[in-house]
Amino acid sequence: DLSLIGVNVLRKLYLFFFALLMLISFMGFEAQAATLQDARWVTRNDAPIPYVRMVMDLSAPVKASASISEDGKTTTVTLKNTKIGKVKSSMTMDSSIASSAKLTQVGKNVNVTIKTPKALDTDGIKVFSLKKDTVNNKPYRIVMDVQKQGVAPESNYYGSKKTTAKSS
């Protein structure tokens, strides 16, 4: 039957073009990369253990992962699906806590490489994200806290300080 063969050929062509159309539409909806818009740091001495806080401003939310080198003196934070905008590619920071940070584009990701004078362990670094804050006009952010190593926590008193009673 010639008509039966024609129907099967048309059906296969239809399925092929439908699959091709679906593939093209999925390619067009690939996630847009976030842009790293600003990077800054500050040393915080008001905590029980001093630390350096780095804040990265982003155009969209990103996922981040961190790894520490074998010697513990290099921490790399990878910002997934992110591109570097008009940001300084290196920063000199507090030499006693985190001496420097370097930003590099690695494929679709940005690596933030932080050098420390003393070895860090996983408790010495915290990485977290903050949502866009439209009320205070703040963008999406990734925050990295690097604690000073080799120091004992200081006691801080919040509210009223300890007082010694006088005897009469």
In short:
The protein has 168 residues and is of the alpha+beta class. It has one helix at residues 2-28; strands at residues 34-44, 51-58, 64-68, 74-79, 82-84, 90-92, 100-106, 109-115, 125-130, 140-147.
Structure notes:
Helix content is 16%, strand content 38%. It is α+β, with helices and mostly antiparallel strands and 168 residues long. The strands form 2 sheets. A 5-stranded mixed β-sheet has the order 5-1-2-10-9, with no helix packed on it. Strands 3-4-8-7-6 form a 5-stranded antiparallel β-sheet, with no helix packed on it. The chain is elongated.
List the keywords.
alpha+beta; single chain; 10 strands; 168 residues; 38% strand; five-stranded mixed sheet; five-stranded antiparallel sheet; 1 helix
Describe the secondary structure blueprint for this structure.
Blueprint: H1 2-28, E1 34-44, E2 51-58, E3 64-68, E4 74-79, E5 82-84, E6 90-92, E7 100-106, E8 109-115, E9 125-130, E10 140-147
Parallel strand pairs: 1-5
Antiparallel strand pairs: 1-2, 2-10, 3-4, 4-8, 6-7, 7-8, 9-10
- Report, as a whole number of angstroms, the end-to-end distance: 118 Å
User: How many individual β-strands?
Assistant: 10
Strand line-up in the sheet with most strands: 5-1-2-10-9
- Share of residues in strands: 35-45%
- Radius of gyration over alpha carbons? 26 Å
Number of helices: 1
**Mean of all residue-level pLDDT scores:** 83
Order of helices and strands: HEEEEEEEEEE
Helical percent range?
10-25%
Oligomer: single chain
Structural class: alpha+beta
Uncertain spans, ≥5 residues at pLDDT below 50?
159-163
Shape: elongated
Summarize the biggest pleated sheet: 5 strands, mixed
